[in-house]
Amino acid sequence: MMMKGAHFPTAAAFALLALATFHLVSASDPSPLQDFCVALNTTQTAASAVFVNGKFCKDPKLATADDFFFSGLRIPGNTSNPLGSNVSAANVEQIAGLNTLGISLARIDYAPNGGLNPPHTHPRATEVLMVMEGTLYVGFVTSNPDNRLFTKVLSTGDVFVFPVGLIHFQFNIGKVNAVAVAALSSQNPGVITIANAVFGSNPPINLDVLTKAFQVDNNVVQYLQKQFWYDNN
To answer: 34-40: long-range contacts at Cβ-Cβ below 8 A with a sequence spacing of 24 or more?
Structure first.
């Protein structure tokens, strides 16, 4: 009985380690079990297709080089909008061959003197941002209860990491256009722009909820809910 009992803590430790490893492995898109799984769009037949992680897969024998190609990031985004920024995505919606591969890109263009990619989160991805042109003030905020702000001024060639799920932003503090490229650890990272989600939801969040949450007069909340919350994606 003592020998059996002596092995229990070790067995339990291995079980907990296995469970923790499972959660770590599952923290990003699952690893593919084949060379590739080119996504089928909704206009193509799903007959004889395979459904994997959100997208039907094309028969690998029918895949072409174009399934892995996208030229859209060479085109500067239009920053003539209230935010002065534009995000051009290159995820599984633009590149069908990204399906199940767990990675995507985005190009962000910023207008001079204050172009802003506003506070937002990516619920399914860590982001690595590299500045290609210009100077950006960037940062992210940690989760409760600390809510620590980490910021840095980035110049051309600099890189900054935004951990998965944390609120982050980029702000052009230069007098010229800025451009950055972001790599994200998901084929479909998602984006939640904080102001848009809180004050521009459809239908609107109950006024009493926001008034109490932000500890402001309800006229302030009503004013914010009436604004047009621009989406730069």
So the answer is: 34/60, 34/100, 35/60, 36/60, 36/63, 36/68, 36/97, 36/99, 36/100, 36/101, 37/99, 37/100, 38/63, 38/67, 38/68, 38/96, 38/97, 38/99, 39/92, 39/96, 39/97, 39/98, 39/99, 40/96
Q: In 10 A of CB 212, how many CB atoms?
A: 12
Token reading at 164: 């998965």
Strand partners, 182: 106, 129
d(CA 124, CA 108): 19
Structure confidence by residue, pLDDT tens digits, 122-162: 999 999 999 999 999 999 999 999 999 999 999 999 999 99
89 within 8 A of 183, measured Cβ to Cβ: no
Distance CA 166, CA 119 (A): 10
Tens digits of residue pLDDT in 151-208: 999 999 999 999 999 999 999 999 999 999 999 999 999 999 999 999 999 999 999 9
8 Å CB contact between 102 and 28: yes
C-beta separation of 95 from 86 below 8 A: no
Count of alpha carbons within 13 angstroms of residue 2, beta-carbon side:
0
